[in-house]
Specification:
single chain; about 45 residues; mainly alpha; about 0% strand
Protein backbone atom coordinates (compact mmCIF):
# COMPACT_ATOMS: atom_id res chain seq x y z
CA UNK A 1 0.00 0.00 0.00
CA UNK A 2 2.81 2.41 0.85
CA UNK A 3 4.35 2.03 -2.62
CA UNK A 4 1.00 2.75 -4.23
CA UNK A 5 0.53 5.94 -2.21
CA UNK A 6 4.08 7.08 -2.97
CA UNK A 7 3.56 6.48 -6.68
CA UNK A 8 0.48 8.70 -6.58
CA UNK A 9 2.37 11.46 -4.82
CA UNK A 10 5.35 11.35 -7.18
CA UNK A 11 3.53 11.26 -10.51
CA UNK A 12 3.01 14.56 -12.31
CA UNK A 13 -0.55 15.83 -12.47
CA UNK A 14 -2.40 16.43 -15.70
CA UNK A 15 -3.93 19.84 -16.35
CA UNK A 16 -7.38 18.33 -15.73
CA UNK A 17 -6.27 17.02 -12.33
CA UNK A 18 -4.81 20.40 -11.41
CA UNK A 19 -8.04 22.17 -12.39
CA UNK A 20 -10.10 19.64 -10.44
CA UNK A 21 -7.94 20.22 -7.35
CA UNK A 22 -8.34 24.00 -7.61
CA UNK A 23 -12.11 23.65 -7.99
CA UNK A 24 -12.32 21.27 -5.01
CA UNK A 25 -10.35 23.70 -2.86
CA UNK A 26 -12.53 26.62 -3.98
CA UNK A 27 -15.71 24.72 -3.13
CA UNK A 28 -14.30 23.59 0.22
CA UNK A 29 -13.29 27.14 1.17
CA UNK A 30 -16.64 28.57 0.08
CA UNK A 31 -15.14 30.67 -2.71
CA UNK A 32 -17.12 28.73 -5.31
CA UNK A 33 -20.61 27.42 -4.71
CA UNK A 34 -21.02 23.72 -5.46
CA UNK A 35 -23.00 23.22 -8.66
CA UNK A 36 -21.94 26.54 -10.19
CA UNK A 37 -21.91 26.40 -13.99
CA UNK A 38 -18.35 26.85 -15.22
CA UNK A 39 -18.72 28.37 -18.65
CA UNK A 40 -18.49 31.61 -20.54
CA UNK A 41 -15.75 34.14 -20.90
CA UNK A 42 -13.56 31.93 -23.04
CA UNK A 43 -15.54 31.83 -26.28
CA UNK A 44 -14.06 33.30 -29.44
CA UNK A 45 -16.10 35.73 -31.48
CA UNK A 46 -14.98 36.45 -35.03
Amino acid sequence: MRGFVESLIERPQTVAEQVANVLREAIASGTLKAGTALRGGLSRKS
